[in-house]
Amino acid sequence: MSLSKTVYTAERADVEADGKHVRILKRVEGPHAELRDNLPSHVARLSDEQARRLRDDLNEVLSN
C-alpha cells in the first residue's frame, strides 16, 4: 500500500497573447517523494472559459 498521493494545483499562465490561461499541474506527495523526480508535471492549459466550465462541472459533481 502506498502512502503517496497525487495532488493537482492550478496557476495562472499568462503566456498567451490571445488571453489569460490557467495551467493545471500534478505532483506526488508522501514518503520518499523527494527521492523521485517530483517536479510538478504539466497536465493541461485551459482558457479562462474552459477553467470556468471545469469549475462549474466539478462543483456540480461534488455537490451530489
Q: What is the percent of helical residues? A: 25-40%
How many helices? 1
Give the N-terminus to C-terminus distance in angstroms.
29 Å
Q: Which secondary-structure class do the elements indicate?
A: alpha+beta
Strand fraction equals 35-45%
Strand order of the largest sheet: 1-2-3
Please indicate the count of domains. Answer: 1
Low-pLDDT parts are none
| String of helices and strands | EEEH
How many β-strand runs?
3
Mass-distribution shape:
flat
Biggest pleated sheet? 3 strands, antiparallel
Overall pLDDT: 81
Rg estimate, integer Å: 15 Å
Explain the overall architecture.
The chain has 64 residues and is α+β, with helices and mostly antiparallel strands. It has one domain. Helix content is 25%, strand content 39%. The chain is built from one helix and three strands, in the order βββα. It has one helix at 48-63; strands at residues 5-13, 21-29, 41-47. Strands 1-2-3 form a three-stranded antiparallel beta sheet. The radius of gyration is 15 Å and the shape is flat. The model has no long low-confidence stretch (mean pLDDT 81).
